[in-house]
Prior knowledge:
Helices cover 46% and strands 12% of the residues. With 153 residues, it is an alpha/beta fold. The mean pLDDT is 91.
Amino acid sequence: MAEALSPVAAEANCRRLPLALEHTNSLRPDVGFLHTLRDTVDVARRLSVGVCMEVNACWGERGLAQTVADAVDVLRLVQVSDYVIGTLRTPDRAVPGDGDIPLPRIIGQLLEAGYDGVFDVELIGPRIEAEGYQRAVPRAVERVESLLASAGI
């Protein structure tokens, strides 16, 4: 993997662009190979790149608060969305607040660990498409802004 990523990392470095690995909770080999935030942090450290924390893919991981605290120096982006328990399709994001992810707790853990980077809203899948992006996006932005304001940002 280091051999494959080296030219990309070198080019990103020359252009002063951050490079981050993103994990997925999908077990499909065509979707990705890093399945936990903890594993992604380990690989990113070995390759001297950052991490994109996909909340939807790691919210149920054991020891998430400790993983976040240990990884805050390599976190470059946090993607926020929600998940409805019982969903069997991937990807099938929900507008933050419409699902079951304890977003206030996770955002609090990030901020407590010292994360001061970017939060991104990630909306994709049939649930979002059924609602329509014109309706879902403003609701999602409003919800994430409210979560961050409640956390003191």
